[in-house]
Amino acid sequence: MTAVTAPTREAFRPAMHYASKDTWLNDPNGLIYYEGNYHLYYQNNPFGNVWGNMSWGHATSTNLITWTEQPVAIACDDYEDIFSGSVVYDQHNTSGLGDGTVAPLVAIYTSAYKEDSQHAGIQAQSLAWSTDGGYTWSKYHGNPVLNRSSANFRDPKVFRYNGPAGAYWVMVAVEALDFTVVMYRSDDLKSWDYLSSFGPANATGGVWECPDLFPLPLDGNEDLIRWVLTVNLNPGGPNGGSAGQYFVGEFDGVTFRSETTVTEGDQDPARLTEYHWLDWGRDYYAAVSFSNVPDGRRLMMAWMNNWQYGNDIPTSPWRSPMSLVREVSLVTSEGTPHLTQQAVIDPAALTRTVAYTELDVDGIRSVAGGGAVQLIEVTFVRGSADEFGLVIRGNGNEGTRIGIRPGDGRLLVDRTVSGNTAFHGAFSSIDTAPLRAMDGAYSLRIFVDHCSVEIFAQDGEVTLTELIFPDPSGTGVSLYTTGGTAKVASLRLTTLA
Fold first, then answer.
1. 467 phi and psi, to 5 degrees?
2. 108/21 Cα distance (integer angstroms)
3. I need a surface site. Which of 179, 343, 413, 477 has the fewest CB within 10 A?
């Protein structure tokens, strides 16, 4: 294992993922597209690079790849920390918070009240608004606007619902310790009425957090709309620690009814792999979607870390990146609706490409065209091998193994010798996901950055996201098999600018 010293820690700063300049970040908040800019707000400690002093950091982008850090948007104070939430464009000024000429952006966030507050120990939902495009914010004088007198009522995601009963705002939030999503409605974002609850269901191995609820056409059919409810949990993921799950069903403006629930109440550990997971890796958490995106696209983003070791990853002065933005779709797979995900990539970021076809692999085979930041697209055809795949960010002594075991129907990522793994006992791991062949082949799209690997398998039907901390000189790529042979039908390695 390589001990990474302080002077090299900045070498892990991602090229294709957002990380703050010199502070801590976690959950993405308030994701919204407005007047040509994508706004990423996020949980941020403005005063250090470990969790604490929760405020909303802010970054903007026009292409979802290159982000510009902005000043802190909504700051904690002596009375409250600013926990997760969402932002909506209040186009018709239903809140009355506009200035008469500009409709406001309204943030709905969780106030985590401190000892000096009259609401000490309570988590409740509050508002802030902006009339300058989301750069400066004012807290609403009537906060909190929704208080259940609960210590774990948090993470509101708000959207505009249009149905037979008219248009109104819907909030989904969680009672985290009860494994329950609670839903409310409002006409003005200030007064809220209870609608319904969902849960417990499927994975309940950790607290529920950061829910989202949105419609998608099934198999591209706009006449066949299904609703997707996502909820993140910590711990209890399929490979340990933090993760996100989702349910597919119907929402009538009052109640969400799941069609994909496997277990209700307590989870069954033996059925963990039957649940629908947003990502099978260890480092994809608190995923939520953007509001107000043109053309009805559903774009999601997550915190690329895990609460098991999040405060300890070996980066400085910043700590924690965000995932790539993903466009999600809903397709029928083996008779059941599933999300598929595709990374959003700016073509301008793609530069030199090295391509191969019809490679026979028996053992280890190095290929030219490796790099610290690149897109790898590969299609394997099974031969006699028990396992086949790639080793990325390799230097001969270490590397990250991405393998396929066709007999087990599994995709794996082995980061036990990926570089620095000694900073926390929970980090070193071999993590797996279910994977089935399509027409006898396995296709992977792998985004490699200075401290991460995001894998999109079989057209995004399965994703697996992991942090890695390799020696900066380790940029090699090699193919491998064990117990026999395999064929690589095609391999493209594209340098990312």
1. -80, 145
2. 26
3. 343
Is the pTM of the predicted complex or chain greater than 0.85? yes
Residue 212, both tokens: 């989202």
* 467 in Cβ contact with 283 (< 8 Å): yes
Looking at residue 9, the DSSP 8-state letter turns out to be H
Residues 53, 56, 59, 65: what is their CA dihedral angle, to the nearest 10 degrees? 90
| Whole-angstrom distance, CA of residue 223 vs CA of residue 213 | 19
Q: CB under 8 Å to 174, separation ≥6 — which residues? A: 152, 153, 154, 155, 180, 181, 182, 208, 209, 210, 211, 231
- Other beta carbons within 10 angstroms of residue 167's beta carbon come to 12
Complete edge-to-edge strand list for the sheet that includes strand 430-434? 364-367, 476-482, 387-394, 400-405, 410-414, 430-434
Looking at residue 275, its amino acid is Y
**Whole-number Å distance between alpha carbons of 486 and 387:** 9
Tens of pLDDT along 22-54?
999 999 999 999 999 999 999 999 999 999 999
Long-range (24+ apart) CB contacts under 8 A made by 91-97 are 94/169, 94/187, 94/188, 94/189, 95/127, 95/129, 95/188, 95/189, 95/190, 96/188, 97/127, 97/129, 97/140
Parallel/antiparallel/unpaired status of strands 400-405 and 410-414: antiparallel
Taking 70 as the threshold, does the pLDDT of residue 1 lie above it?
no
Contact 467, 313 (CB under 8 A): yes
Residue 196's contacts (CB-CB under 8 Å, 6 or more residues apart) are 182, 183, 254, 255, 256
Show the tokens assigned to 72. Answer: 């802190």
Q: Compute how many other C-beta atoms are within 10 angstroms of the C-beta atom of residue 178.
A: 17
- Are 445 and 411 in contact, with CB atoms under 8 Å apart? no
Dihedral sign, Cα of residue 251, residue 252, residue 255, residue 257? negative
pLDDT at 162 over 80: yes
Average of pLDDT values for 239-255?
97
Closest CA to 40 of 323, 281, 455, 452: 323
As annotated, the active-site residues are: 27
Cα–Cα distance between 444 and 451 in angstroms, integer?
A: 19
DSSP state of 19: B
480-492 per-position pLDDT tens digit: 999 999 999 999 9
Closest CA to 324 of 433, 474, 227, 446: 446
pLDDT for 5 beyond 60 = no
Query: What pLDDT shows up at residue 9?
Result: 63
